Amino acid sequence: MTNHIVDLKNTDCALIMGSNAAENHPISMRWLLKARENRGAKIIHVDPRFTRTSARSDIYCPMRSGTDIAFLGGMIKYIIDNELYHKDYVVNYTNAAFLVKEEYGFEDGLFTGYDAEKRKYDVSSWDYQVDEAGLPLKDLSLQDPRCVFQLMKKHYERYDIETVCKITGTPKNKYLEVLKTFCATGAPDKTGTIMYAMGITQHTVGSQNVRSFAMVQLLLGNMGRPGGGVNALRGENNVQGATDMALLFHIIPGYIDSPISNAANKDLLSFIRAQTPGAAKLPFTNLEEFRALVKAGFPNSGFKINTSKWVISLLKAWWGKAATLDNDFGYHYLPKRDGNKNYSHIALFEAMHRGEIDGLFVNGTNPVVGGPNANKEQEALTKLKWMVSVDLWLNETADYWTYQGWERTVKNPDVPTYTPADIQTEVFFLPAAAVYEKEGTAAQTGRWVQFRWKGADPVGESKADLWIYNELGKRIKKLYAGSTKPQDEPIVNLDWNYDDEHGHDDIMKVALELCGYNVADGTPVEGFAKLSDDGSTACGCWVYCGAMTYKDGKIIYKTQNRDNKDNSKTGLGLYSNWAWAWPMNRRIVYNRCSVQPDGMTPWPGDEERQLIRWDPTIPADPKKPEALGSWVGDDVPDFLKPTSPDKPAFTGPFIMRPELKGCLFAPKSAMKDGPFPEHYEPWESPTENIMNKQNLNPATKIWEPDKQGTTDKYPIIGTTYRVVEHWQTGALTRNLPWLAELMPDMMVELSEQLAKEKGIKNGHKVVISTTRGDIEAVACVTKRFKPFIVNGKTVHEIGLLWHYGFKGYATGDPANRLTPHIGDANTMIPEYKAWLCDIRRA
Amino acid sequence: MKVTRRQFLKVTGATAAGFALVDLGFDLQATASAAKELRIKNVTPTPTVCPYCASGCGLVIYAERDANGKFVKLLSVHGDPDNPINQGGACSKGAAMFNLREIYDERTGEQMINPKRVQKPLYRAPGSDKWEEKDWDWMLARIAERVKETRDSSFIHKEKLEDGNEIIVNRTERIASIGGSGLDNEECYILSKMMRALGLVYLETQARI
Amino acid sequence: MANLTNLYDVSKCTACRGCQVACKDWNQLPAVIEPFKGNYQTHKDTNGDTFTIVKFMEYEDPVDGVQWNFLKYQCMHCFDPACMKVCPRQAYSKTEWGATFHDPDKCIGCQYCTYACPFEVPKYREREDKITKCTLCVDRVEAGLTPACARTCPTGALTFGPRDELLQVAEERVKFLRVNGFPNATIYGKLELGGLNKLYVLTDTPDKFDLPVNPKVSGNTVFWQDWIQPYFGWLIPLALAGSATSFITTRILANKHGAHGEGGHE
Hints:
The complex is a heterotrimer of chains A (842), B (209) and C (266).
Chain A: E1 13-17, H1 21-24, H2 26-39, E2 42-46, H3 52-55, E3 59-61, H4 68-81, H5 87-93, E4 106-107, E5 110-111, E6 114-115, E7 120-121, H6 148-155, H7 161-168, H8 172-183, E8 192-196, H9 198-201, H10 206-219, E9 230-232, H11 239-244, E10 251-252, E11 256-257, H12 268-275, H13 287-296, H14 307-319, H15 345-353, E12 359-363, H16 367-370, H17 374-381, E13 386-391, E14 426-431, E15 440-443, E16 448-452, H18 465-480, H19 489-492, H20 507-515, E17 517-518, E18 537-538, E19 548-551, E20 554-557, E21 580-581, E22 612-619, E23 628-633, E24 716-721, H21 737-742, E25 747-751, H22 752-758, E26 765-770, E27 773-782, E28 788-790, E29 793-795, E30 797-801, E31 835-841
Parallel strand pairs in A: 1-2, 1-8, 2-3, 8-9, 12-13, 13-14, 24-30, 25-27
Antiparallel strand pairs in A: 4-5, 6-7, 10-11, 15-16, 16-21, 17-18, 19-20, 22-23, 24-31, 25-30, 26-27, 26-31, 28-29
Helix pairs in contact in A: 4-7, 4-10, 15-17
Chain B: H1 13-17, E1 46-49, E2 58-65, E3 71-79, H2 92-95, E4 102-104, E5 111-113, E6 122-124, E7 132-133, H3 136-154, E8 156-160, E9 166-179, H4 185-198, E10 200-204
Parallel strand pairs in B: 9-10
Antiparallel strand pairs in B: 1-2, 2-3, 4-5, 6-7, 8-9
Chain C: E1 4-9, H1 18-27, E2 53-61, E3 65-73, H2 82-86, E4 92-94, E5 100-102, H3 112-116, E6 123-125, E7 130-132, H4 138-141, H5 148-152, E8 158-162, H6 163-178, E9 186-188, E10 198-202, H7 219-232, H8 236-241, H9 243-259
Parallel strand pairs in C: 1-10
Antiparallel strand pairs in C: 1-8, 2-3, 4-5, 6-7, 9-10
């Protein structure tokens, strides 16, 4: 979330799309209902099916799965055509005025630079025109035909209401109602929020779906303001933290790209050059020269100009004394991945299926239920030599090798099954302590990092994951102790000292390293502005720097703060003294946008929602009373307090972008599949694309061409979703009797019309099939699902619960035995949300 | 400098009040009927955060402890009234957190540890059709050996680049790690650090799926 | 002492069923797992280990489209409770603040209350041979806490407080809803059966929420309390041993069978 949960109460309108907030983030409705009661806010729910969220919305608008860009592209066109955009905001805070290279173009669904054979774009034409100094050219009148605003207008000309509704299957009157209601938040005194979840991301165009949201919100002037924002409702209690800690192949902690095996990453200096925006062509041959350049500042860099400090502090945290200037601070100890390979979830299981992976750690996750094409992913596990599973329960993945694991309700010769004797995997199951049987922090969806205290003892011999990995780390280090092989240095030299004086793992030691300490005395680094790249600071993840402080001889972990008074003078619910939010306890990111470009005047009629402002009369630092001018306000500004009007950052709210502006046009390599979102159909779709000549996102990798289902055999759209009573693959809910009671069996929701066609009655057992397999479920025939009229033809859609498997108190077939191995062009997130299937009575 | 194991939690506000006059603001003791005594009387709850969706609702754990303060059993789990996100609220999942550890038996109504929780490390030998209980030492030692064996036999220390130069790459592609989004930050951090030190590049979490 | 009551505003309920689970947590109730019947509702009715349930009802209107109604259902804590009237052992009592309290120590499990109740709420718990029902969390309230259900409600649909104040809130809310898209919005529990100690704000007529539009206590109940109980209370053990037993057993079995029947949406 760019904003946070409580902030939802400040909105004038909420567009919930690709999320079933009332069910999957129930507390969000507390704050939305307050907004409705206190501000008269409207709640809009766009979804293929009427849900518990729809039941509490002012407008429910149906939309076929996988057509979000058509829906939002039409919204962009509506905003531009009716001049509903927030003009001052758009001109000053976005790249609308930037001129784009003459070479850039778009035709027949393809952007310039496409290589059909590789299914990849050469992105060099997707860039700004620049002056001699390398700074982008602009036309602040937004009239130049090559400016972003005009190109965008032209791009979305095709997205008229008629065409959009033909694609999405939305009734025109409903669509218009949504457009009118949400786009009214373009008024300077209004803000609107967009809430989304996996309904938006789990598509072959998932990233561009989110981009469309960002564009709508930038046009309406809704970013960086209370009650606004693009708000991802994240699905796991600490998925935000796991991402921050870079449990992902493509990054290292703090959102820095993981090193690749190529010349640009060959040593630390090259890596820093490649990772720091604007540094590519600068003249420096060592760190010292680079440091001087950073100090002076260079163009097109943004806040990431500090990358070297983050990288070197990370290396220092990991390899301690062994990380010195002479060995590039241990830069080579970091693994370098093959740049031509993808290592994401789908790729990982494809490689495993080919027998290329021998050992697997499974940390509280359950691909046998939650992985796309789960039949294939389960079969991939049989190729492992060993597997370590850490969980509270024997989930379906831990038990994948059992007889029960291979039972299939429908016999299908294309779906192989095994017996335990066939499977040579050595499996280790390590029982983990539950959340309240241990202590530690978690980052929630609004980036608040909250401490969880221990309220009960672990059951039996179960242990906290921290204990498990600390102990395993110690044992692995012991095995390598004394090795003189250069390849073992990353382990031999690894700083791994998390025990207290009694030999118990000490979470505060881990936390201090993660949040950063001064190497000389071990005191916490008070904020990432104080990190350095000379080896004097160590910090495991720079975005968490500042979460620890040293006061009166004691370390304070701010995540433990429990002052729940709202510090905002206008009742915005910032709660800045409750826990700690990254970065630097900022509660609403890009908050510069909450005040006009002059930095002092609130948006007309919106004084209450101003988060920060520039005060030229007071000093930023009490120790330097002569230096007048400071940013003040209830929230923490995105830049340093003394950032004055002569600095580009003064009118650059989007500090992580080199151009400091919100990107209506995503330049260069920001996206792999185009600078503007364009509608493409899902990989398995019931219709041709009528918006352009490409059916599938041209930049998406196709893994299993022979598994693409077609409408002759599979005419129905299938989608998956969650319900409030269960969570993810159900391990943490289907093992709880009270929750098993609430939603006891695997079910599929379908319309009365489809049920009639297929002779299915409510409560019947039915079979759903795709090219990947078949599952059985109980039919829930409902008025809440309706067929869509897509391009003149009736198309049915059914929805399956995500949560079921063969273990626990509530059991059922996993829906993901049906879903395909194909993912988004940028992130590779699987397309769980739109595929083709058929349904019949069991 | 010395890092203390942990700061002691000072519970204040509505959470600390525990039992009296918390929600209603007035006392009904005077009119008390035949009701049994409050189960959580004089119990100081421990705050935690819900492990399900990422909204970050606070929850409080009420537990029975013996005279030495040793944990005996759970009493109840509620929404944390002090947490500004949920202000005491909890949906069905949050409200069911008691079951994460303990349940009431459906036949007898007796309170017991959730029988689905695994209480000992389990080992499944290749080709076997059953789990065997093992102790932690044996398990961790065996896992460490297998990690080393796979890493050492598959490790790529250096690679030749297109320009002919060699580059240190320090990676293994034969070990993978998935998951971690249910772990605490500190746990994710040491997991990320250890896996990368081992040279893993197949490192993924639920954020991708 | 003024009455203390729950106000349940369906226009704010998201049917997350936190109340249903929090009730089980506080009252130490095991799960009663029944198969999914094609409706989100877990049980057709409350049962011996489930004091409160959320009902789910779908309707379709040509103008307003689909409506999905949710209703938290439990003991209504009537001002003049029929259960109390028929109980042969005086297991029922009213607290000074309006809860209908059932004392399990006095209960003999005869289940007359179940059949006397206009909502059929008190339910038999076989393993103890006792009746159970919502207690309005008497133990919590008398220690200054709100009932577990109201305490857990994430959206504020369920609140707890003095009945007269909540009645005012409810009336304001109904007024608001009537001019904001819900012309049939109404209060339930204000006058029904002479007043219930549970108040509902409904967005539509009670029948759309599976509530009896005009609940009535059967004439037999009045007869029982005013005539039979005072004079022939000593006959109860005999009555239980005799024909009443077969009558009751038949009713229980019929009821149980019903709970397992095919579910539907309406």
